[in-house]
C-alpha cells in the first residue's frame, strides 16, 4: 500500500509515517499544499491523507483540483474543524472520509482500510476498448487506430453501452431501457437507424467489423470473427 500524506505539522507527519510504515505501507510526505498536489498528480497512490489547513493551497483545494482532473484516488481528510458543516464541506469537495483531530491511529488505519476496500470495488472505468476501437469516458472521445470519430451524444451513449457489454448479445429491450430510458417499445426503427449510423462511423473503411446485428436476438460489439 502506497500512501501520500500531505500534512504541515511535523509531529503528526513523523507519528503517522512511523505508524503506517509499521503496517507495511510505503508513505510519501509533503508539508506544502502545492507540492502535495503536484506529488498526487504525478504518481500513483492507493490513498491520500490530506490535512485541511495547509500552506499555499488548502486541503479542500487539493481535493477539488484532483477530482476535476478525473483523479478518483481515495482521500481521507484530516482537520481540527469538526462541526457538521465542516465535515459536509469536506465531503462535498470530493473527500471520501473526514477524520477530526485529535484522533487515534487505530481509527485512522481502519478508515484507510475501508476506503481501500471501497475503492477496489467502486473504482470507475475511464477507458473502454474493443480491438483498436477506444473510448475515453472522461474526455468523451472515441477513436479507432488513433483516428478520432465524431459521435452525437446518443450515439456515444449507445456505443458506450455496447462496449461495456462487449462480446455479449444486447437486446432491443436492453437498449431501449438503458440508452433511451424507454420502458416500453415505441414500435419505431429508432434503434436500427442509430445502429446503422454508428456502424458507418466505427466500421467503415476497416477490415474488421466490430458491430454486428444478430437477427432475432439483438446486437453485439466484438473483435472475434
What structural keywords apply?
225 residues; alpha/beta; Rossmann fold; Arc Repressor Mutant, subunit A; 2 domains; 5-stranded parallel β-sheet; 4-stranded antiparallel β-sheet; 11 strands; 21% strand
Describe, in plain words, how this protein is organized in 3D:
- This protein is about 40% helix and about 20% strand.
- Helix 2 runs parallel beside helix 3.
- It has about 220 residues and is of the alpha/beta class.
- The chain has 8 helices and 11 strands.
- It folds into 2 domains: about 1-120, Rossmann fold (3-Layer(aba) Sandwich); about 125-220, Winged helix-like DNA-binding domain superfamily/Winged helix DNA-binding domain (Arc Repressor Mutant, subunit A, Orthogonal Bundle), CATH 1.10.10.10.
- The radius of gyration is 23 Å and the shape is elongated.
- Strand 1 (about 1-5), helix 1 (about 10-20) and strand 2 form a beta-alpha-beta unit.
- The strands form 3 sheets. The chain has a 5-stranded parallel β-sheet with strand order 2-1-3-4-5, with helices on both faces.
Produce the secondary structure layout.
Layout: E1 2-6, H1 10-22, E2 26-30, H2 33-42, E3 47-51, H3 59-68, E4 75-79, H4 84-92, E5 97-100, H5 105-122, E6 127-130, E7 133-136, E8 141-144, E9 147-149, H6 153-164, H7 172-178, H8 190-202, E10 211-214, E11 218-221
Parallel strand pairs: 1-2, 1-3, 3-4, 4-5
Antiparallel strand pairs: 6-7, 7-8, 8-9, 10-11
Helix pairs in contact: 2-3, 6-8
Amino acid at each position: 500500500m502506497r500512501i501520500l500524506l500531505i500534512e504541515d505539522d511535523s509531529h503528526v507527519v513523523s507519528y503517522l509515517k512511523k505508524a503506517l510504515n509499521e503496517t507495511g505501507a510505503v508513505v510519501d510526505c509533503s508539508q506544502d499544499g502545492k507540492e502535495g498536489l503536484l506529488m498526487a498528480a504525478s504518481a500513483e497512490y492507493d490513498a491520500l491523507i490530506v490535512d485541511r489547513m495547509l500552506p499555499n493551497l488548502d486541503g479542500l483545494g487539493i481535493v477539488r483540483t484532483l477530482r476535476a482532473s478525473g483523479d478518483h484516488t481515495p482521500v481521507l481528510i484530516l482537520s481540527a474543524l469538526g462541526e457538521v458543516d465542516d465535515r459536509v464541506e469536506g465531503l462535498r469537495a470530493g473527500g471520501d472520509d473526514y477524520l477530526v483531530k485529535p484522533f487515534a491511529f487505530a481509527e485512522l488505519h481502519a478508515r484507510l482500510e475501508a476506503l481501500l476496500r471501497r475503492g477496489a470495488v467502486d473504482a470507475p472505468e475511464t477507458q473502454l476498448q474493443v480491438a483498436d476501437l477506444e473510448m475515453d469516458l472522461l474526455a468523451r472521445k472515441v477513436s479507432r487506430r488513433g483516428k478520432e470519430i465524431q459521435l452525437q451524444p446518443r450515439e456515444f451513449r449507445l456505443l458506450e453501452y455496447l462496449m461495456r457489454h462487449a462480446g455479449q448479445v444486447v437486446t432491443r429491450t436492453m437498449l431501449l431501457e438503458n440508452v433511451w430510458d424507454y420502458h416500453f417499445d415505441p414500435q419505431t426503427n429508432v434503434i436500427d437507424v442509430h445502429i446503422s449510423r454508428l456502424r458507418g462511423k466505427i466500421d467503415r473503411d476497416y477490415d474488421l467489423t466490430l458491430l454486428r446485428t444478430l437477427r432475432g436476438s439483438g446486437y453485439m460489439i466484438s473483435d472475434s470473427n
